[in-house]
Amino acid sequence: MNCIYKLRTTALLTVTGTLFSLAALAQSATDTVPATADTTLQVPVAYGEQPWWKVTGAYGRVNGSVLRKSAAATLSNGLYGRIPGLTVMQGNGEPGYDAPSMAIRGLSSYRGAGLLIFVDGFESPFDQLAADEIETITVLKDAAATAMYGIRGANGVLLVTTKRGFSGKPKISFRAQTGFQRPQRLPEFLGSYDYATLYNEALRNEGKTDKYSPADLEAYKNGNDKYFHPDVNWYDEVLKKSAPMSEYNLNLSGGNSNATYFVSLNVLKNTGLYKNTDSKREENSNANFLRYNFRSNVDIKVTKRLSTSLDLAGRVEDRSYPGAGAPEIWGNMMLIPPNAFPVRNPDNSYGGTSVYRGNPVGLVLGRGVATTHARALQATMRFSYSLDQVTPGLKAGAAVSFNNWFQGNDDKTKQFAVFQLLKDPAGDTIYNKFGDNTSIAQNDGVNDQWRRTNTQFTLTYNRTFGEHSIDALALYQQDVYTISGNNVPYAHQGTAGRVTYAYKRKYIGEFSFGYNGSENFPKGRRFGFFPAVSAGWILSEEQFLQQAQWISFLKLRASYGQVGNDQVGGRRFPYKQYYNGGAGYYFGTDNRYAGGMDEGSLANPDITWEKDRRANIGIDASLLRNRVTLAFDFFDEKRKDILAERYGAIPGYIGVGLPAENVGSVRNRGFELQLGYQSEVKRSFSYFASASAAFARNKILYMAEAQQPYTYLNRTGQSIGQPFGLQAIGFFKDEADISASPQQIFAPVKPGDIKYKDQNGDNIIDIYDEVAIGKPLLPEWTFGLHLGVQYKGFDLDAFFQGVANRSVMLSGPLVWAFVNDAKAAPIAMGRWTPETAATATYPRLTTAANDNNYRSSDFWQRNGSFVKLRNIELGYTFPTSLLSRIRMQQLRVYVNAVNVFSLDHIHFADPETLSGYPAMRSVNAGIRVQL
Amino acid sequence: MKYRFWLLFTGVVTIISLSCKKDFLDRQISTELTKDEVFSSYARTRDFLIGTYAYLPDGFNRLDNAMLDAATDDAEFTWEGSAIQRYNNGSWNPYINPDDNWNARYTAIRRTNLYLEQSGNVDLNMYKLNPDPTAQQTYRNMTADLERWRYENRFLRAYFYFDLVTRYGGVPLITKTLGLSDSLNLSRNSYDECVQFIVSECDSAAAHLGVTVADNDLGRATKGAALALKSRMLLYYASDLNNKGHVKERWIAAAKAAKEVIDLNVYQLESNYRGLFRSTTSKEIIFAHRYAPGNGFERANYPIGYDGGSSGTTPTQNLVDAYEMTDGSAFNWNNPDHAQHPYDNRDPRLAMTVILNNSQWKGRAVEAFTGGREGAGVDRATKTGYYLKKYVDENLDLLLNKTSVHTWILFRLGEIYLNYAEAMNEAYGPDQDPQGFGLTAVQAVNKVRDRSSVKMPLLQTGQWNTATLRTKIRNERRVELAFEEHRYWDVRRWELGVALFNSPVYGVKITRINPTTFKYEKMEVEGRVFQPKMYWYPVPQAEKMKSPALTQTPGW
């Protein structure tokens, strides 16, 4: 068959070791488009694997080799836009704490929304695994894919599969990569002269007198009085231009027919941006993250029937940071005006004032060191016993997995004094001290840990009878999850099953179910049954399409079923009311403490899990001899029984916390589309392009909302996380305009203040005029575009990610000049003055927080859509002919860049990380050697 | 070979059934208690009541570290963005009312109702049925405790209602715990009904609570606390705002209630006025909110120039001017001597309440003058030229995070004398005592003025009429009870809000002539807004929506 031939060709080319075929193979498996027609290719599904053509559910997957190109210290940062339907949003960029947030097919619940994540079949976090040990990451989306997870499947499931050994000559590969990173974007602020000029203007606007004299302004302009008229750019003072990051990886794999192994060691060193820190980490420390990953996956065939495997994965994470946390350091850098005080005084003490005591340089260098040391171990042992003697194709399996994590800290922190320079009447400099230099205080008492113990028993049956084939799986599993600080472990228990029937490789039908329960619900109401049915029809196998040569593969899929979510949010064991220790009081002549007792929130004996009915239809196609691939999925989900406390309906004089009740519902609909093209190889040149788009939009159908006086105030009917605010309609022109307009109650208004729309026509602007504005923070659209070319040994690969239908609300020192002692950003230069009334882009300046201007409104809201070049890589693979002489199988060198640029609507900050430690842009060079 | 399968199969089934035998999902919950476990236990029932004490109001930090007096003409809070400023600029309403305590008070009231319903279920059988004399004694002690606690609890409930009623007027009187299946569309009881309820609860508590408590129980509600609450409630009830018909009997009732407290004869005026507010055990304290050692109040209120200080609540010139000269005459800016040395020869309570410029504080002279270390020109320095001294512990080193015990006085004898004086003056006039209480209005005022650390000239019998003495008593209350959360409510109940809270507050501009000479000029600090509707708080809009039978306060 054509497909088989194609595969053989590919295989042959692999053996010859030319680069493009390697890349092409990798590529064909990465982008979740149907792989070429190897009927035996197995793909991960819930609790097992399936031949890819038998899959009837909605899945998405990405290969480990692709994640490696993202050169991300944290693995999940490699997933941006890679899997349609998996929305990944960047968090901050602090080394060791930079994991992004994730959602599968948007949101279906306004309560608990966490994904279920499995590593090699057992629940485990995956953020800190190394890309080199990953085989694939699979996203399970619809009911058919997730029904076996039953009560836990509704938010979607992520399956991470690590590499395993193979029978054959040992393969040793080593990779080293090093690079530099710098912030994608840092916020910008005005210098001292502009700041002081605007501050004076703000004071005059408030009827006060200038704070800065013309002489002061002149001094700021000249910039030659660095102690009494400083002009400090805190980002320059605190941050280095760039910070190094390096990673080393060694993979060994191989085996024979009796045993195979995959062994991996990965070292990652990531450093932060802070300048002048002590490399010995005694006085102070940069933000450092050092990680070691170990893995040993061993498969042994013990007897003809019994096989076993032992996976050991360990990790050590060492983190050290300045004694002041990143929020404090970055918050002060964003806050403190350039002229507030010099970085250091003439006597080298830290500058500071009564208001600004957090000198950012002092926060980095003068607050000591905070370190944490974490270790993790996941150990899984599996047995599989063939029961062919009972009936051919039957197998029994058992697996047990222990997974644990421990983190201890060792902080050596201290405080520092700041000094404000003042001139006494005689003109002498005096030092006004705030705070105190303290000696180092040590604290190593904060430990954090969790552990999971899982047990699984399975019976599988796979057999083909002529044109019919049956695959069945029955499973029992239980797990206990214990977290430090919580003496009641979380537990799940249940059975699950799946039967897949296929006829002639044309028609596939599948039934799967999960019947499981969690400890969080009342006895007798703990277990739920969650079934799903699905079907696939491979049209390309039908006679009537055999003539259509341009169709290589065409399949229709449909599924319908119900899944649940037991992470309902709120307190645990909500079916009972509890009393617990509460605030106490002081009695006696000695004012002695006596503990109190509190009544907990009311019980809801009928509490249950969220239920999600979901339908999915999909098409997988491969056209023009597999050169064009296409995948499309449409889904419709309805979540019900979402918890809500009826605070909006029950009067406060009931005087007690309300129980969470299963009253809410949300509908979520959308689609994913993926298109790929892989060119032929002509004169050693080939290229590919793969594009994807995913859309998900939810709507809250019911959430027990309080009756609102105006329907536009309702959250019900909107998307989860829909922002609300006032609608700005310009600035007040003059006093006449103010008196002719509705009264705005937030603060006394003056000409130049933001004027809002009176939504209800009551001639008063208040919180009842806040309407839905813009879109939620989680984007509705996500896009991916993957492009690559190969020519001889060279390959170039670029990946773009985009999101749309997303809004961000700007607030705080980033945009609000002078509020809470903040400095001013360049956008404040467009402020309203009587002269610039026609062209102003920013309200009248004030030094005091102006509640009228600085509040949630569409004036401060921006379109949060963006397109980012997430990574680009250029590599060269040396010809095999050359390498064979030095007994080397492969040698590849590459350079890559991450987060190269962003096209967006916010030019002064990154649309994903508006404040705090920024996301990084990096440039790396690497080498990969395979023996 | 089939036996191997069956061996394995049996093994698997055994393991599964073993693990299922004890319900795998039954997770022991050891740290949390049910209602029965709490209220069958003497100790936990006690603890539940102790937890209710923690709901007493916190006057040290009413809102954003500001004291409630910063919403009166007595003080200005330094931070302009504080929620307390809404009461000064008039930007509070049914939607935004920072001092709204509707839900918080009803939470506390539910606790007291729950306690009354449940505290009879304590199981003392292990003592009751034990014939051993010690066990029998324990049984009697515990039974007596439980009985007494019920009345402490009823006093606390009355206090919480008082807290609501002074704000909102009549509120729904809820005396049992409500469940979701109860009718939850309650309407307000009338103000009169609420007052009657509070007074009768106080009477009932007073009848059962002891006059004194054991040393280790100091701080618990006593008979005196219940009677003091009754005294204040009845005084408010008799005042102009609530007594449109000027019913004289209300004043008489108020006078009687105050006299009942005085007649307990266990309270005495603290000789050291300044020390009273740093004391936990003073004989003058009738009831107080007690705290762990802390320094939050000093961090909030130390002058900005002192380590750790943030200026906080600062007294106004309006208040400072209210302190008399030591000869009993009024201070007058137009008197050149007064204006030049405004702090000389003043009522000693001024220097014990207010940190004045060039006075000693923490080992140095206070520099509240323009250009001084805590004077105009320094960011976050006082806007009024004064700093708060009352209640503030001068001796804390904030850099070393030193702490001390603070006690927020809710009722003290000084107030009761002034309650009595006001009620007697309104009922009978300055010097009359037709009921033979043994104390006239003038005499009651003199008790307060004659405190050994104050010693202000006594008012003379026959020199006063009701109107002049009324003014004098109002000023005396202002001065004596400054920063104790009286001014805010007194001005309201006197119906003087529009007169006093709708006009500017003043500070003092201090210019240093030379190191020991200063020039003082009165200056306006801030205009204030008070509208007639603000005598009463609006029902929070959210609560009004959920409970439509609640009528909104007139004007809102």
Salient structural properties:
heterodimer; A: 931 residues; mainly beta; 22-stranded antiparallel β-barrel; 46% strand; disordered N terminus; B: 556 residues; mainly alpha; two-stranded antiparallel sheet; 21 helices; 10 strands; 42% helix; globular
Count of helical regions of chain A: 12
Low-confidence segments of chain B: none
Spatial strand arrangement across the major sheet of chain B: 1-3
Low-confidence stretches of chain A: 1-36
Number of E-type strands of chain A: 46
Overall body shape of chain A: globular
Quote the average pLDDT of chain A: 90
**First-last Cα distance of chain A:** 34 Å
What share of the residues of chain A does DSSP label as strand, in percent?
Answer: over 45%
Helix content of chain A: 10-25%
Compile the SSE list and pairings.
The complex is a heterodimer of chains A (931) and B (556).
Chain A: H1 2-16, H2 19-30, E1 42-45, E2 48-51, E3 59-63, H3 64-69, E4 86-89, E5 101-104, E6 116-119, E7 122-123, E8 134-140, H4 143-146, E9 157-162, E10 168-183, H5 192-205, H6 214-222, H7 234-238, E11 243-255, E12 259-271, E13 288-301, E14 306-322, H8 326-335, E15 350-351, H9 360-365, E16 368-386, E17 394-413, E18 418-423, E19 429-434, E20 441-443, E21 448-465, E22 468-483, E23 486-503, E24 507-518, E25 527-538, H10 543-546, E26 551-565, E27 579-587, E28 592-599, E29 610-623, E30 628-645, E31 660-678, E32 685-702, E33 724-725, E34 728-731, H11 735-740, E35 743-744, E36 754-756, E37 764-765, E38 771-772, E39 781-791, E40 794-804, E41 807-809, E42 861-863, E43 866-877, H12 880-884, E44 890-898, E45 902-904, E46 920-930
Parallel strand pairs in A: 6-9, 15-18, 35-37
Antiparallel strand pairs in A: 1-2, 3-8, 4-5, 6-7, 8-9, 10-11, 10-46, 11-12, 12-13, 13-14, 14-16, 16-17, 17-20, 17-21, 18-19, 21-22, 22-23, 23-24, 24-25, 25-26, 26-29, 27-28, 29-30, 30-31, 31-32, 32-39, 33-38, 34-36, 39-40, 40-43, 41-42, 43-44, 43-45, 44-46
Chain B: H1 2-21, H2 35-39, H3 42-53, E1 75-77, H4 85-89, H5 102-118, H6 125-128, H7 133-168, H8 191-208, H9 223-238, H10 248-262, H11 273-276, E2 285-290, H12 296-301, E3 313-315, H13 317-322, H14 336-340, H15 348-353, E4 354-355, E5 360-361, E6 364-365, E7 387-388, E8 407-412, H16 413-428, H17 441-449, H18 466-480, H19 487-493, H20 497-500, E9 505-514, E10 517-526, H21 541-546
Antiparallel strand pairs in B: 1-3, 2-8, 4-7, 5-6, 9-10
Helix pairs in contact in B: 3-5, 3-7, 5-7, 7-8, 7-9, 8-9, 9-10, 9-16, 10-16, 16-17, 16-18
